[in-house]
Amino acid sequence: xxxxxxxxxxxxxxxxxxxxxxxxxxxxxxxxxxxxxxxxxxxxxxxxxxxxxxxxxxxxxxxxxxxxxxxxxxxxxxxxxxxxxxxxxxxxxxxxxxxxxxxxxxxxxxxxxxxxxxxxxxxxxxxxxxxxxxxxxxxxxxxxxxxxxxxxxxxxxxxxxxxxxxxxxxxxxxxxxxxxxxxxxxxxxxxxxxxxxxxxxxxxxxxxxxxxxxxxxxxxxxxxxxxxxxxxxxxxx
Length: 237
Prior knowledge:
Layout: H1 12-19, E1 21-23, E2 34-36, E3 38-43, E4 51-54, H2 55-63, H3 76-96, H4 105-126, H5 129-138, H6 143-163, H7 172-183, H8 196-225, E5 230-233
Antiparallel strand pairs: 1-2, 3-4, 3-5
């Protein structure tokens, strides 16, 4: 993806005054605090104030990736990986805010259940709620802060489903081509090879997810390049 970053803007002087504050983050001893800082701001031009991404946001993003070892001092590569993800997520959330929000009791209840489901899935990915809690404690992430992150993730996923999933169509030719690609070479190998009808559902699901992922990548690229979008690096990681 191409990356457009605007730096050296006048309002950084204002943001710099808000950039440093303290919180418990990766403590090695109980009660230890380290300086947190604002790393980047993201705006699509639709709001007066940009969304800010802090160093703790980046560390929490890394900590909530189940297959990633939790390093006391993340590498620059890992930090920039997480920053890139947070920039993309923020741009999508800014688009999602443009849609009207259903404020009925049923809608609020459904949303709360989706957030709880997301939390349960995250705990399962780490092995248990206790292991998730232990990992959160290591990076100073509270339960309330996790809920806020998960609310954003649910909002993002619902928006992407609304924007892309309902409009993805997979043709029979695409399914047949993928079947031949994946299974034709296995014929006469002594292995059990499913028929096209047997494999069709799984192939269609795989192709759907691939097409959605590709369309989301293009969508985010366009968000980054559209007039009004500014991603300002306040403090490189």
